[in-house]
Amino acid sequence: MRKPRGQTTMGYAFSMTFGAALFLITGLIGYRLDKHTRFKAGTPWAGEILWWQVLSGLVFACAAVWFWRKGLREIRSNVYVPELAGRDAAVSPSRRIERR
After folding, report:
1. For the segment 43-58, what is each residue's pLDDT rounded down to a tens digit?
2. How far is it, in rounded angstroms, from Cα 91 to Cα 88?
3. pTM reported for the whole predicted model
4. Nearest C-alpha neighbor of 21 from the set 57, 50, 53, 65
5. Is pLDDT of 60 > 70?
6. Secondary structure (DSSP) of 4-56
7. b/e per residue, 83-95, with b = 16+ CB within 10 A?
8. How far is the C-alpha of 35 from the C-alpha of 91, rounded, in Å?
9. Confidence band of 98 (pLDDT split at 50, 70, 90)
10. d(CA 53, CA 61)
11. Contacts for 44 with CB less than 8 Å, ≥ 6 apart
12. Are 89 and 82 in contact (CB under 8 A)?
């Protein structure tokens, strides 16, 4: 069964990496991502480390590592390696011509 268009393992890897960086950095510098809390406090800065954002970033980072490993494994399995192809290694698989 094919994946729906636009849902690739590498796409998930990039998204999870971005999410991990966003939550880790903002959590460590004390910037609130929650709009409601920012509105109530009157400022987006907490003045302390936001541990729930740091923990969320670490969870995203673990997921990103898993998706990167899976995506790179998929790419590696689809790459044509001439050294392993055999006698007609200099010709790509799509352009091989039967010998008479």
Report:
1. 888 889 999 999 999 9
2. 6
3. 0.69
4. 57
5. yes
6. PTT--HHHHHHHHHHHHHHHHHHHHHTB---HHHHHHHSSSB-SS--HHHHHH
7. eeeeeeeeeeeee
8. 58
9. low
10. 12
11. 31, 32, 38
12. yes
C-alpha to C-alpha distance for 23 and 52, rounded to whole angstroms: 9
- Residue 2 DSSP code: P
Phi, psi of 31, deg, nearest 5: -100, 125
Question: Any residues with CB less than 8 A from the CB of 87 and at least 6 apart, and which?
Answer: none
Q: What is the pLDDT of residue 90?
A: 53
What crossing angle do the helices spanning 9-29 and 51-78 adopt, rounded to 10°?
A: 160
pLDDT one-digit tens code per residue, 70-93: 999 888 887 766 665 555 555 555
Query: Rounded to whole angstroms, how far apart are CA atoms 78 and 98?
Result: 23
| Statement: residue 94 has pLDDT above 60 | no
Provide the residue type at 20 as one letter. A
